[in-house]
Amino acid sequence: MEAIPIDRQLGNAYQEKWESRSSVRTRPRKWIDFSQEGYFFPEEKQPLLLRQEIMGLGQRAKEKILLQSFLKYLNDIVSLETRLINSACYKLIDGHSGLHYNDDIKLGAYTVLIDEHYHVYVAQDMSLQLLSQFPELGRFDYPVSDAHYAVALIRQRMEAKYHDAFEVLAVCIFETTLVRELIEFFNSANVHPSIKYYVNDHMNDEARHYGFFYEILTDTWKRLPDDYQEAIGSHLADFIKQYLNVQSDKRFYADLLNRLLQDAKQSSAIVEDLYKGFEISPDIPMVKNVLSVLKKAGVLDNRHVKAGFQAMGWTL
Ligand SMILES: [Fe+2]
Ligand SMILES: [Fe+2]
């Protein structure tokens, strides 16, 4: 396999920032203070609460929905950060992918691995605190996230030699868009102070990861040979559409409602109705965000990438 050298330098500043500011180095254990008031998930971000028949179930039901939404959120963090991001970091480090990063980037990838394992630990710790405080919550069989589904689906559409580079780029896109979005989500009133504190700490690390992965995205893309850019680039539009999808949320909401209503058919009907007419389009803020990162990183200039978006009917 040909070696593709990627030589972006981060310099000492990145390492110094991590040494002095990373959460794992500097922050205490996250306890949830159950004596304080507040919802465990931002109410305006839970579309089930838009429905009159659900609000009619009362305050306890609302609190339960928000608690379960937070547990699902923590589960998503665990699955995204353990599998996809860690696997991409090892690809940066071991060189088996044919992409050869310098020692500076490899050291940075180790800091990300530590951070993400720490985030998973914190998310697990908080889930267990919640489950022991509210034993009636019970556990869920959570659906596969759209991010995982998108990587698995799009990977199949390209030859095996391009898989690793695609996975690295996919994670660069997650770390510069998805993760931030997930975290900024909690900047709203009435959210429990312990949860806000937790989310801010996570953001502290993810802001640094944004910088790291943005550099990797820009440099990796620029140095990929034409056949890689074509093989991966022609599927990027579809990948973006798939990973921003809401299939996983919809399935979770239907399961959650079914627990409250004890009626699977009615639960699915309510969720379908909530999302009637919803489509991933370039006007959605999250999509704009992704497109602007791809543009800044020079990915959108590629004709195969452009053609993919055009084929989807998106004018950029
Ligand atoms: Fe994280
Ligand atoms: Fe991260």
From TrEMBL:
GO terms for molecular function: oxidoreductase activity. It comes from Candidatus Glomeribacter gigasporarum BEG34. InterPro entries: AurF/CmlI, Ferritin-like_SF, RNR-like. Pfam families: AurF. This is p-aminobenzoate N-oxygenase AurF. It comes from the Bacteria. Gene3D superfamilies: Ribonucleotide Reductase, subunit A (1.10.620.20). The lineage of its organism: Bacteria, Pseudomonadati, Pseudomonadota, Betaproteobacteria, Burkholderiales.
